[in-house]
Amino acid sequence: MTMTRRESLTLMGGAAATLAIGAEQVQAKTRAPAAQSLNALAQAKGMRFGSSVAGGTGGGTWRNPRNAALVAAQCGVIVPENELKWQAIRPSATSFDFSAFDGTADFARRHGLALRGHTLLWHRPKWMPGWMETHDFGARPATAAAAMMTAHVKTVCARYNGRMSSYDVVNETVLPEGGQLAQTRLSQAMGGTEALVDLAFHTARRAAPGVQLVYNDYMSWEPGNELHRKGVLALLEGFRKRGTPVDALGVQSHLIAPVPGASQQREWRQFIDEVVAMGYGLVITEFDVRDRELPADMALRDRVVAETAKAYCDMMFSYRQLRDVLAWGLVDPFSWLQGFEPRSDGLAARGCPYDSNFRAKPMREAIAAAFAAAPVRG
Ligand code: G3I
């Protein structure tokens, strides 16, 4: 039987006690020694744990001493939340500005943390720099667009040569509504999205040999993601047919609590099976859990968020193709969810492993437990 989200929420409200017992069992069974960091637990399985960090002057940044200490203690790898995007590093068509990201890269070096690069091409008009809208690609637009894409990838890769372990080369070029490929002024100038994204990967392979190259997207296991998943599979198949050098699928993993029904979970497993059958690795690139649809009660919310995290991590960690697991922020108040997807009741979202006092939440225990239960990677 499949349940709609609303039905499962109704059930949840009516059976909160049962749910609570389930979640407590999860925690009791799974509590890991406090001294072990999430990255240490991951490393014991041949995996890595990490988080995004922001580079600005706000809270979720390495400039915040408590956040910096938490990131350094818990993580083995970090990724910039915004500072490597075109909007951040391309003030114009001909210039680069790495001042914001360089601080993040130095933070990683000081603490011996690996770095992921996000992203060499966020292929949506909305996330391109403003100047792209009016940029004149001249009489030979395809040549000009290819030159722009190539210069971008080469410049970033050369600057951080030897410091990046992985790049989200292309981010979100599959449209979730229908599974088609997005178009931008850059891809239109180039003569097609496939040509543009292929060029990005080929250039990255040459400019950053030995670095993991990832296609990153937010298709997920909730209902409504069917066409998005289909579109991503078609893109990944196309990469293989054309010989495009893509090593892994980045599964962003911005989940929505609670855990979806069994048929959804089956569909998700089939999707991941198809991805790995094509020879792709897996990366969890932006993990958090949206609690927008859960009741206000904080303890209940924390338990359902933890249950969702545990069910998802257990399934994903069972794939040996998955090694890196990155949260999209460690601490609730600094999460993008507070601004982008606020709860309708005005309460703060609680979708990260740590709370506003930097205390571990049940979600942190759920991730720790999933690492403890994961098979060892060779
Ligand atoms: O730093 C500027 C500030 O100078 C300016 O005054 C202010 C006014 O708008 O904006 C600030 O920049 C904001 C930036 O976050 C830093 O806070 C941008 O407007 C805002 O659009 C940006 O949002 C980010 C969003 O991507 C778009 O880049 C979120 O923090 C970030 O969490 C989110 O991350 C994305 C991933 O890259 C891709 N996958 C989905 C994920 C969540 O949406």
Q: What's the total helix number?
A: 14
Supply the CATH superfamily name. Answer: Glycosidases
Round the mean pLDDT to the nearest integer and report it. Answer: 92
What is the element string, with H for helices and E for strands?
HHHEHEHHEHEHHEHEEHEHEHH
Q: Which terms summarize this structure?
A:
alpha/beta, 14 helices, globular, binds ligand G3I
List the topology elements:
Elements (H helix, E strand, L loop, with lengths): L4 H10 L1 H15 L7 H6 L4 E6 L11 H10 L2 E4 L5 H4 L9 H12 L3 E5 L22 H19 L4 E8 L13 H6 L2 H15 L4 E6 L8 H17 L5 E4 L2 E3 L5 H16 L3 E10 L7 H20 L4 E6 L8 H5 L21 H12 L5
Parallel strand pairs: 1-2, 1-9, 2-3, 3-4, 4-5, 5-6, 6-8, 7-8, 8-9
Helix pairs in contact: 2-12, 2-14, 7-9, 12-14
Provide a compact summary of the structure:
This protein has 14 helices and nine strands. It is of the alpha/beta class and 378 residues long.
